[in-house]
UniProtKB/TrEMBL annotation:
This is ATP-dependent RNA helicase DeaD. A motif (Q motif) lies at residues 8-36. Residues 451-480, 565-587, 596-616 have a biased composition (Basic and acidic residues). It comes from Thiocapsa imhoffii. It is found in: Cytoplasm. Residues 435-500, 564-624 are annotated as: Disordered. Its EC number is 3.6.4.13. GO terms for biological process: cellular response to cold; ribosomal large subunit assembly; RNA catabolic process. Belongs to the DEAD box helicase family. DeaD/CsdA subfamily. It is an enzyme of class 3 (hydrolase).
Length: 624
């Protein structure tokens, strides 16, 4: 049979009649490329090595043919599917159950850690034909003797690369040793690293190789965009996006378990229905949280890569990468949570300026450009809030009994001689105090992004006009020494200075590490005897500002506060981060603290070398 013929439906693949009937009932019409290529080989009993990304129909590619070979009258495990996570185990088990709805006497059982042994033991006594489980729990039952694999026909490793990444290699090897030597093996992996190749060479017998890649490594139904934003303003930009985007359900990815809780709490404080999903939650809590998302009681899940494995929720319309993944293939997995089974989806990637290299790596992997989007502006946010306010107003006028409030407003107007417009304006103000309708400021664009856009535009104009590039354009400025840009900066005072031994490097390091702000976006630093002045981006979030108050430099708390602009200029040396060097603090009246003489007034290097003690002084400085 020619598996490349895309016009053929499931009826031509040779599935058993009860399975073909279930496929028809589920509304499946045309097999996906991986289903078209895998099903005939698995029906024939061949070992198979398949490479496919999330969302390509991989589960049906092995479940349909293996169910067609199941003997429902033979008790005991005939198919064992290993998955890296509990969520994926549940998803695969549900798929098997759905495809086997017309298969009399069929039983499938998911087994995974976090669920009580009692329930699993009682279900194992019923002799299910298909076991879907995580390696650790499967191994536990095999050692206890509560799971037997004597009659096993097929072993499936689903998302094998992820299982190896999670440290299940030894468990999988041990499980292989417990299976009959003539069993069929199907190994599926999103990537094909050397470790997977080694497993295939050792464990698979003359396997058929299937490599299916969705168009440009991602499904076309996912609309992708990226937004360049500093870590300092990430939360602000995210909340603006959440306000302006029309979404049903959303999955937000972060790097760490701690970050899931932290970000979910901040989103809840902003009024969004959000919860964390991470590996520290017990299975009952995880299942309850996912079910709340499915039922519409939650709108947003903040998750790590591992926690979201196997998550397939139909109402997920958006995926946001709050933290960009360091592995480009993880990006494909993440956005694959939306836009599945022909549904449309939208993926938004927040990129810090220093992470542009990771963005380029992702674009190379998916073989397409991820278009840029600007952070939502203040005017867009204001219009959106006014529209919602107007909608709520009209809905209230239509649906609520307002007779009491009409009388109240009339009484206020007559008794207190208040104009109706004044009353309405005051009530509107009271309604919007926590979330102002008139948003004043835009999130600042990263200076590097503005400069890059401007310079690229200037270079393009010069090329079109046939003019040579300037020296600055051909010898691009080092990122360690950017041009100063005071736009969008505010001057702050910190209570650490020369007398505490503070250096510009100490101050930049402390602020950058504790606020997440890159050193290049910290402006001038003016170190005085008892305190210092430093220029930082305006609109500093309150939680970061309060945190910086308690940060210590040289044993001294910063106690940061807005500076008195009238006392900002003292004539002392000011430093920008590009000029920061670890210098010894100098007293204000130190004769050596003045500006260096012009080059013409300074002795040449050759003359300095001839002066007595020059080499000894050089050695001493190197030693210091």
């Amino acid at each position: 049979m020619d598996t490349s013929d895309t016009s053929l439906g499931f009826s031509h693949l040779g599935l058993a009649s009860p399975i073909a009937q279930a496929v028809n009932d589920l509304g499946y019409e045309t097999p996906t490329p991986i289903q078209r290529q895998c099903i005939p080989h698995l029906l024939a009993g061949r070992d198979l090595l398949g490479q496919a990304q999330t969302g390509t129909g991989k589960t049906a590619a092995f479940a349909l043919p293996l169910l067609s070979r199941i003997d429902p009258h033979q008790p005991g495990a005939q198919v064992l599917v290993l998955t890296p996570t509990r969520e994926l185990a549940l998803q695969v088990a549900e798929a098997f159950q759905g495809y086997a709805q017309h298969l009399a006497g069929f039983l499938v059982l998911p087994i995974y850690g976090g669920q009580g042994y009692g329930l699993q033991l009682s279900q194992l006594r019923r002799q299910p034909q298909v076991i879907v489980g995580t390696p650790g729990r499967v191994m536990d039952h095999l050692k206890r003797g509560t799971l037997k694999l004597d009659g096993l026909k097929t072993l499936v490793l689903d998302e094998a690369d992820e299982m190896l990444n999670m440290g299940f290699a030894e468990d999988i090897d041990w499980i292989f040793e417990q299976t009959p030597p003539q069993r069929q093996v199907a190994l599926f992996s999103a990537t094909m690293p050397t470790a997977i190749r080694r497993v295939a060479q050792r464990r698979l017998n003359d396997p058929v190789e299937v490599h299916v890649v969705a168009d440009s490594e991602t499904v076309d139904t996912i609309e992708q965009h990226h937004c360049v934003v500093t870590r300092f303003h990430k939360l602000d930009v995210l909340t603006r996006i959440l306000e302006l985007e029309t979404f049903d359900g959303m999955l937000i990815f972060v790097r760490t378990k701690h970050a899931t809780v932290e970000l979910a709490d901040k989103l809840k404080a902003h009024g969004f229905a959000a919860e964390a999903l991470n590996g520290d939650m017990n299975q009952e809590m995880r299942e309850r949280t996912v079910e709340r998302l499915k039922q519409g009681q939650l709108d947003i899940l903040v998750a790590t890569d591992v926690a979201a494995r196997g998550l397939d929720v139909e109402r997920l319309s958006h995926v946001v990468n709050y933290d960009i993944p360091t592995d480009p293939s993880a990006y494909v997995h993440r956005i694959g949570r939306t836009g599945r089974a022909g549904r449309t989806g939208r993926a938004i990637l927040l990129v810090e300026p220093r992470e542009r290299g990771l963005l380029r790596a992702i674009e190379r992997t998916i073989r397409r450009t991820v278009p840029a989007m600007q952070p939502p502006s203040a005017s867009q946010l204001s219009e959106s809030r006014i529209d919602r306010f107007t909608l709520e107003l009209r809905k209230t006028l239509t649906e609520q009994d307002l007779d009491f409030f009409y009388r109240l407003v009339s009484r206020l107007s007559s008794e207190h001689e208040l104009d109706l417009m004044d009353i309405a304006a005051a009530l509107a103000y009271l309604n919007q105090r926590d979330r102002p309708l008139d948003v004043k400021t835009d999130p600042p664009r990263p200076p590097a992004a503005e400069r890059s856009t401007r310079e690229n535009s200037q270079r393009g104009e010069r090329r079109r006009e046939g003019r040579p590039e300037t020296r600055r354009e051909t010898n691009r400025e080092s990122p360690r020494r950017p041009a100063r840009n005071s736009e969008g900066l505010t001057r702050y005072r910190i209570e650490v200075g020369h007398q505490h031994g503070a250096t510009p490097r100490d101050i930049v390091g402390a602020i950058a590490n504790e606020s997440g702000l890159e050193g290049r976006y910290i402006g001038r630093i003016d170190i005085r005897q008892e305190y210092s002045l430093v220029d930082l981006p305006a609109e500093m979030p309150r939680e970061i500002f309060n945190h910086l108050k308690r940060v210590f430099v040289r044993g001294q708390a910063l106690r940061i506060a807005l500076a008195d602009h009238a006392a900002d200029h003292s004539g002392e040396r000011e430093w920008s981060p590009g000029e920061v060097r670890d210098r010894r603090p100098r007293a204000p009246n130190d004769a050596t603290s003045g500006e260096r003489p012009p080059r013409s007034d300074r002795p040449s290097f050759e003359r300095q070398r001839q002066e007595p003690g020059f080499h000894q002084e050089r050695r001493r400085k190197r030693t210091d």
